[in-house]
Recover the amino acids of this structure.
């Protein structure tokens, strides 16, 4: 099963390599990984998507916890959470498809961030399913290339009823 | 007053109580070596290879419990430490290794003798540092010793660029603050109670004790536990000495070359209490068939060791000594059992297995059996010697036929299985214990992997004894070829083995040789009398195999034993 693991790590050189080394050295797979600074510039947040059975996921979280530069590990899959990913898609539609590209972009609440005589570059944010859906819709119109960020995730806070 | 990075470094080592460093100089580490030239408090032991330095520091650490310290130069000096780091990492041995590095400005430029040692050593260290600022040196030294020696111990490497050791700064000695490193020491009380309940309910309990018992200094607590609840104990290769080998509850070693009765007990027990061990494949054999009837209690300081290989019913993360102290108290105070009565049938069954297949070998009058040499060493030292080994048959025979009653007397590369470990490790142990008898039980293959350290032993006047079980083969691999590869001895016959007696003499050591069983005892006695480095060349039966043996991947109670036919083979020839 796929798991999304959220980490707080020391923001210093070599940490990413310790974490990726842990995965490669033990034969685990990283499906996506994204890193960014937190409100404390000495700490980074990392979101890793990986897969495996319960025993493997337990080992992964324990091994991550054991790394000295890792401050906190949360398997966010088990919590109520929000996930987002962004994609930039460069589409090169035929003349007759151009309007359709813009229409799909609008339906998906995306934006055109660059255009040329032959291409539009569209920015879309959403969960994995949404990203995959728009890629499928654009495919017949001629995708030149696309770039995905990898997933980021955050736990939801519970809302108290008044 | 401002001090140079090198001076700060030396002062930091002194504050950590370092008395001995094993090392080898080179260009970019000269700032530090220069200060050691006349230092009164710290002795540098110059080895003849950096790998030897790391193994020596490892032997020093295993025999004392303190961190071993190594100092080498950049590039090849640093890369030569990798085997030693991996050896220590697999066996959880505290080492602090300092390597020189090219000046910060040149890092990444493929400078002369530059290697990315922080990158290379990352998977085989517990942690590593690159010191980028002279102001960080004392903090890094302090943190490295802390990380190496606490929690599950392990090696730490610190890379010191040349410009950082020559730059100047004020000396500070900051408190250790590592926000993300807090090993769990106290075991969970509820879990410990669960374990006590299981112990009281079990009829056929068994303790499997590993290296964690020794690292945590819990040998007394383990003995107490075994004696309170009358539980037999088997010790893994790393756990030998954690429980007295001569104790009536001792079953010797389990696993691939373990005793019949230890393996039978594992397969038959209804409760397996694993203490400071990690269910290595050499212990478990085929995992699905391991301890099929047992509930498993697992005590370990490293949470990743628990449930990594086997299912566990009661996991207890914590320091073995602390956990056992609480467990023993619970067993003594809260549980009223007639332990002797409860275990009577179980211990009787084990005794029957011991009678059925005791640990043995066939003595021969004409050729020396390697087991006989180990037995004689045990007999003559009465167990009061530090024993190191190389890797292979020599290691297994030493583990099987030498009874370790005390911890920290047994130095062997268990996890990585590093040939060439034993001799430098013995040197390190002798440095730490100048008045103890230190013996390396070696093979003719392994000893040649770090034989250059003869110079280190001789020049430091170390009375290390090396007992070479010389069969002119890479014996363990040859054994596998004989049993599983149709006796095709591909590249295991060493053919030319040096004359170890002359070789020892060439280095200024003493060389002795025994070719007949009757010569074994006199040679050992003479060697133990001489206060110098001694090589003993025991020319042993080349075809002797380590038994019992569980073929790789088989359940541990499917063991091979010495066949009758072999026992009856009369005309043994020492030399093929």
């Amino acid at each position: 099963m796929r798991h999304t693991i959220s980490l707080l790590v020391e923001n210093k050189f070599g940490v990413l390599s310790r974490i990726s080394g842990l995965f490669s050295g033990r034969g685990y797979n990283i499906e996506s990984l994204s890193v960014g600074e937190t409100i404390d510039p000495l700490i980074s947040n990392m979101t890793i998507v990986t897969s495996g059975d319960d025993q493997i996921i337990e080992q992964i979280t324990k091994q991550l916890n054991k790394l000295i530069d890792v401050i906190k590990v949360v398997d966010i899959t088990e919590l109520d959470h929000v996930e987002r990913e962004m994609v930039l898609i460069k589409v090169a539609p035929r003349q007759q498809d151009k309007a359709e590209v813009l229409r799909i972009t609008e339906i998906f609440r995306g934006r055109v961030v660059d255009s040329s005589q032959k291409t539009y570059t569209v920015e879309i944010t959403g969960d994995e399913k949404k990203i995959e859906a728009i890629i499928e819709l654009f495919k017949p119109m001629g995708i030149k290339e696309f770039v995905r960020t990898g997933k980021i995730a955050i736990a939801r806070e519970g809302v108290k009823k008044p | 007053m401002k001090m140079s990075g090198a001076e700060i470094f030396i002062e930091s080592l002194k504050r950590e109580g370092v008395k001995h460093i094993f090392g080898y100089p080179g260009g970019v580490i000269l700032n530090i070596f220069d200060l050691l030239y006349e230092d009164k408090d710290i002795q540098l032991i110059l080895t003849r290879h950096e790998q030897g330095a790391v193994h020596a520091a490892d032997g020093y650490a295993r025999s004392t419990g303190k961190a071993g310290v190594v100092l080498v130069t950049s590039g090849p000096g640093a890369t030569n430490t990798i085997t030693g780091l991996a050896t220590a990492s697999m066996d959880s041995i505290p080492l602090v290794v300092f390597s020189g590095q090219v000046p910060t400005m040149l890092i990444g430029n493929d400078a002369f003798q530059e290697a990315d040692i922080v990158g290379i050593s990352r998977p085989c260290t517990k942690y590593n540092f690159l010191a980028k600022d002279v102001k960080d040196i004392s903090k890094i030294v302090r943190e490295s010793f802390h990380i190496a020696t606490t929690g599950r111990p392990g090696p730490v490497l610190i890379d010191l660029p040349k410009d950082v050791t020559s730059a100047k700064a004020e000396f500070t000695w900051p408190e250790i603050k590592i926000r993300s490193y807090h090993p769990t020491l106290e075991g969970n009380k509820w879990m410990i109670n669960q374990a006590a309940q299981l112990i009281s309910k079990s009829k056929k309990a068994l303790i499997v004790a590993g290296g964690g018992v020794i690292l945590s200094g819990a040998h007394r607590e383990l003995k107490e536990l075994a004696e309170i609840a009358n539980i037999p104990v088997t010790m893994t290769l790393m756990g030998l000495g954690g429980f007295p080998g001569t104790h009536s509850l001792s079953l010797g070693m389990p696993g691939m070359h373990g005793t019949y009765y230890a393996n039978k007990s594992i397969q038959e027990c209804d409760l397996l209490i694993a203490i400071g061990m990690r269910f290595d494949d050499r212990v478990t054999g085929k995992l699905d068939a391991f301890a099929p009837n047992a509930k498993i209690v697992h005590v370990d300081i490293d949470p990743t060791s628990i449930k990594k290989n086997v299912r566990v019913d009661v996991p207890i993360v914590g320091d073995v000594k602390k956990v056992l102290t609480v467990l023993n108290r619970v067993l003594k105070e809260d549980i009223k059992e007639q332990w002797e009565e409860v275990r009577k049938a179980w211990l009787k069954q084990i005794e029957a297995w011991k009678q059925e297949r005791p640990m043995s070998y066939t003595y021969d009058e004409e050729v020396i059996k390697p087991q006989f040499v180990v037995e004689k060493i045990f007999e003559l030292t009465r167990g009061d010697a530090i024993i190191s080994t190389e890797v292979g048959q020599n290691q297994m025979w030493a583990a099987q036929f030498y009874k370790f009653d005390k911890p920290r007397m047994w130095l062997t590369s268990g996890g990585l299985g590093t040939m060439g470990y034993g001799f430098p490790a013995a040197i390190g142990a002798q440095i730490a214990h100048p008045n103890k008898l230190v013996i390396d039980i070696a093979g003719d293959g392994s000893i040649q992997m770090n034989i250059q350290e003869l110079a280190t032993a001789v020049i430091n006047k170390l009375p290390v004894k090396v007992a070479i079980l010389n069969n002119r083969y890479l014996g363990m691999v040859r054994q596998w070829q004989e049993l599983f590869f149709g006796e095709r001895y591909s590249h295991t016959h060493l053919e030319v083995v040096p004359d170890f007696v002359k070789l020892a003499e060439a280095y200024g050591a003493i060389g002795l040789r025994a070719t007949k069983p009757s010569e074994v005892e006199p040679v050992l006695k003479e060697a133990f009398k001489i206060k110098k480095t001694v090589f003993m060349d025991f020319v042993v039966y080349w075809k002797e195999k380590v038994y019992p043996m569980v073929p790789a991947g088989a359940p541990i109670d499917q063991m091979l034993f010495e066949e009758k036919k072999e026992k009856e083979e009369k005309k043994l020839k020492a030399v093929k």
About this structure: The CA atoms of residues 80 and 156 of chain A lie 6 Å apart. Chain A touches chain B through 18 residues (CB under 8 Å). The mean pLDDT of chain A is 94.
